[in-house]
Every structure is written in C-alpha cells, then in structure tokens.
Design a protein that fits this description.
single chain; 557 residues; alpha/beta; five-stranded mixed β-sheet; two-stranded antiparallel sheet; 22 helices; globular
C-alpha cells in the first residue's frame, strides 16, 4: 500500500468535484437535443409533467414501455426545480445524467483510495471522468449515466463486504438500495452486472460464508420496497403490456437478435475499447499483466470478477452499443492505477513489454482520431477550419504521446498525468467546442426557429412528414407537432387547421404534397428552406416550410 493515506479529505473532494465538472460540463447546455433516444426520454418526461401521470410512460399517444420510470422521474424533478418546463431546455433533462456520472466518479475515487491510497483514488476517479464514452453519457438525457451510478454503488458496498465481512450495516443497506434504484432505472440490467461478478467470486473462491453479511432478511424487503410499487402499478395500468414489451420484446429480444440495427460480432467491445475508455484504455491494458499476476489479492480478484464475466456476456449478446460495458470502467480504472501506484512491482516478461509497445501504437492511433475529431468534424460539417480547435487537437495528441513515452520509460505517475490532461482537453474540445457548432447536423433548432419566425399563432401547429425525429417533437412540443404518415397526409393535416398550422416537407415529397393540396383546393406558400443532414439516418435533406391559404372543402380521398 502507498503511504499517502486511504481517505480523501474535504479538500480532495472539492478538487475532484471541480476537476470533474470542468471536464463534464462543457457542452451540457449548448449541445442541442440529440436523436433519437435522448429526445424520446425528454418528450416522455415533458408529457409526464404536463399530465401529472407519473406511472404511464408515453411518447405523444404511443406507449413507451422500454424502461422503468426512474429516469423519467429524475428528469421531471430536475425540470420542475429548474423551472424550465415551458422553455423545453434540454440541459435540465441532462442534470440526472451529469449527477449520475459525477456520483460514479466520486465513488470510484472513494473505492480506489481505500484500496490503493489517496493519489491513486484521485487518479482512478479522473480516469472515469475523462473517458470518452462517459463524457458523452454525462451530456445526454438517458438511463445509462444513472445506471452507472447505481451499479458502482452496489459494487462499492459488495466489495467492502467481501473484503471486510464484519462491518457496519450501511454497506448492506447501500447494496440493496442500489439494486432497487437500478431496477427503477433500467430494469434487471443491474442484476446482470452485479450477479455475474458475485457468481464469478463464488466459483473462484468457493467460499460462501461472507454472503450472510448482505443481510438478505431485511435487505430483500428494502429492495422490493424501492422497486416493487411502480412495477405493480404499471402492470395494472398497462394490463401487463409493460412486461410484454419491456421484458419480452426489449430485454430478451436484445439477447438473441440485434434490435434497431445495433448489431456486432463477438469482439465488438474489444475493438472499440481503445476509444470508448480512452485515455484510460492505455493504462488498463498496461495493467492487465500486473492484475493477473496479483490475482491472489482479494481486491484484485474482486475487480477482475467485476470486469471479465460481464464483458464476456455482453460480447455474446446480439444487440450491442458502445456504452453497454460502461459499468465496468470504475473497476478498470482501479486496476489501472493499482499497477502504477503500488510499489515493488516485478519487471514484466519480454513478451509483455513487446505487447505493450504494439498496443501503444494502436492507442496512439486512436488518440490521433480523438485529436482530429474537433477540427475535422467542424471542417466536414460546416466547411470551415478553426485554428483554436487545430491547436487543441495538436495538444491532445502531444499529451497522448507523452503519456505513452513516459509510461514505457518507467515514469508512470507522470504518464498518468499526461494521459489525464489529454483526456480532459479532448473531452472539452469535442463536446464543448465542436458538437454545439455543427449547425448543418442540428436541423431541429433551425426548423423551430423558422416556425417561430413565420407562425401566426402561439403555439403554431407543425405538420411534418419526412423529418420525424423526436428532437423536433420535443423542441417544438409534443402536443403541437403532428407526424404525418405521408406527404398526402401532411396536406390533409395542414388543411384541417390552416390558420394555425405550418407544414414541413422534404424536397423528395414536395410534388405529392403540392398535388394533394391542389386537389383539395388549398393554396400553399413556401416560407423557408432548411438544408442539412439528418445524422440519424445519414439522409441529406432540403426541408421547406409551407403556409396554407384558401377554403378547404375537406378531403376527397
């Protein structure tokens, strides 16, 4: 163990919160609503607040039975407290995600500090905060950031019990409460991550006596008290429909076949890991041999059991998305810093050093990708080059190169500082400096601005056909946005309320729309042209906003 203490003082906590906020906050308010999942959550939350129905979950008139209500409740609370409900400010919906990531960062720091010392704890926490996938999830209003917090809390409690079976009751309470909260955030996913680690430890150790310290006699009722009421209520309200869709279709369907085109072969997460956990991926891979060599240590054994079974399971599950293994990052960060801060390490074998050199080249290639994302993304989308972003990209790559060089020459703590600097600057550059400026990709804000400029009513009813993204439904309003089934339907919908409606049509639909408008004796007038790319499907769009006039006798089939 290091000699720098195994507790973080209040100044350490303040520094950790401040540094994490500096990395995670840029872009939180300036990145527009993201399609498709974030905006679906935001729409459902807005409708919860508007209707006062916090049991049933809906997107416009459709039931949305994919996840439990926990994150919708947290978003509703954040929006209500911030007073932004009428403004549809997406940053308010993102507050639970930011706080969920921050909580996971702080818990990682507490865990690594207790195991490996104060400096290691601070470093492990910042490895989680600066990781590329975590940075995105902190800025998007979905379930995964809060799920990360609940899984980290459950592992924090379970690990304390595993390492020190005799201890305070708060550990058992935290474990069962975290499981209950996780069930309310994303259903039984938390049971998979925690259960696989627990099963791995039991098989590895073949010791079961410590499990009694989980206090299941009162812990299980605590778990049920948190999760069960809503599950019973939604079963009654939906007449069992929630279970059929959320468990039967969504959860079990992801195991056997890919959903929503999110497929990938075994090895998918391994292939993306250098980017998703960047910059921490360098230090974790370099620590892998150390971790296996020290598996006799109970703490290392627990961290391995946290990582390996769940990783294998997710490689085998058909539906894949890069962030699905994010709950493993706290354990990876702990092992990464352990290999750096524990003294007296034996020299690695030659084959390990050769492998480290090869991986260093791979990691530097991904570092170049991260460094280029800012300036190249702005140039590709907007056709302009930012000298500031170019310099920031160069600084990211230089810091990454220093991290590799310092580690391979034995100056590992200095290497870690360089890697963290690269990660922090990369996150701020991509999420704070680049994404908010990609106006060509952010069609929804420009559409809403055009509607506000040309609409004669407050609110204006918007009929849209080709561009049906949830971000538009959220930002214009779920009750004022009509998703027409076709350009013909759009003309009919426009005719039904010409005084307070506008229609939005893509260039590919205009002929059918105008023909139908003429057939029902409706004169339409183009008001604005919005051009760009729908990044959800890659389609180039030329959207025209129309106003109608004339006397519509009704539809004639």
């Amino acid at each position: 163990m290091t000699q720098d203490g195994h507790r973080l003082g209040w100044k350490d906590w303040l520094v950790l919160v401040a540094l994490s906020a500096l990395v995670l906050l840029p872009g939180l308010a300036s990145i527009p609503p993201v399609d498709r999942d974030e905006s679906r959550y935001a729409v459902a939350t807005s409708q919860m607040l508007a209707t006062g129905d916090f049991i049933d979950i809906r997107f416009q008139e459709e039931q949305r039975y994919l996840q439990p209500a926990g994150v919708y409740w947290l978003q509703s609370f954040a929006v209500a407290v911030s007073g932004t409900g009428d403004e549809r400010a997406i940053w308010a919906h993102r507050i639970p995600s930011f706080l969920g990531i921050l909580a996971a960062v702080l818990m990682t720091g507490a865990l690594a500090t207790r195991l490996y010392g104060r400096h290691a704890g601070l470093a492990a926490a910042l490895l989680v905060a600066t990781s590329f996938a975590v940075g995105f999830e902190a800025r998007i209003a979905k379930t995964d950031a809060v799920l990360l917090a609940t899984i980290t809390a459950a592992h924090l409690a379970l690990m304390r019990i595993y390492l020190e079976p005799v201890g305070h009751w708060w550990r058992s309470a935290l474990f069962w409460a975290a499981l209950g909260a996780g069930m309310m955030v994303k259903g039984p996913i938390i049971l998979l991550f925690v259960g696989l680690a627990l099963a791995g430890l039991l098989v590895w150790d073949r010791k079961f006596v410590w499990l009694k310290e989980l206090k299941p006699l009162w812990g299980v009722p605590l778990f049920l008290l948190i999760a069960l009421p809503w599950y019973v209520a939604i079963g009654i309200v939906s007449d069992g429909g929630f279970y059929a869709e959320a468990v039967g279709d969504s959860l079990m369907g992801k195991v056997g076949e890919s959903q929503q085109s999110h497929a990938g072969p075994p090895g998918y997460y391994l292939g993306l890991f250098s980017l998703t956990f960047w910059p921490g991926s360098l230090f974790f891979v370099f620590a892998a041999h150390w971790a296996w060599s020290n598996r006799g240590q109970a703490a290392v054994r627990y961290l391995i059991a946290w990582i390996v079974p769940a990783w294998i399971a997710y490689e085998l599950i058909a539906t894949k998305l890069p962030h699905y293994i994010m709950p493993l990052y706290p354990a990876m960060a702990c092992l990464a810093v352990a290999a750096i801060f524990l003294p007296g390490q034996a020299r690695s074998p030659l084959w390990v050093r050769i492998g480290a050199g090869v991986y260093a080249i791979v990691w530097l290639a991904f570092s170049g990708l991260v460094a280029a994302l800012g300036p190249a993304g702005l140039h590709w989308a907007e056709g302009r080059l930012s000298p500031v972003l170019v310099m920031a990209g160069v600084a990211v790559f230089v810091a990454a190169g220093l991290a590799v060089g310092l580690y391979l020459t034995g100056r590992r703590q200095s290497s870690l500082l360089a890697g963290l600097a690269a990660g922090a600057l990369g996150a701020v550059t991509v999420y704070g400096g680049t994404l908010p400026r990609l106006e060509t990709l952010w069609l929804t804000p420009r559409i809403v601005a055009a509607v506000d400029a040309h609409g004669d009513c407050t609110p204006t009813r918007l009929v849209t056909s080709a561009f049906r993204e949830p971000s538009l439904v959220y930002q214009h309003g779920p009750y004022d946005t009509v998703l027409a089934a076709s350009p013909i339907d759009a003309a009919d919908q426009l005719a039904a309320d010409m005084d307070c409606s506008l229609a939005l049509l893509d260039a590919t639909e205009v002929d059918d729309f105008l023909a139908r408008a003429a057939a029902i004796d409706v004169t339409v007038e183009p008001l604005a042209l919005i051009e760009g790319q729908n990044y959800s499907n890659g389609d180039e769009m030329a959207l025209t906003l129309y106003r109608a006039s004339g006397n519509a006798p009704g539809t004639d089939g």
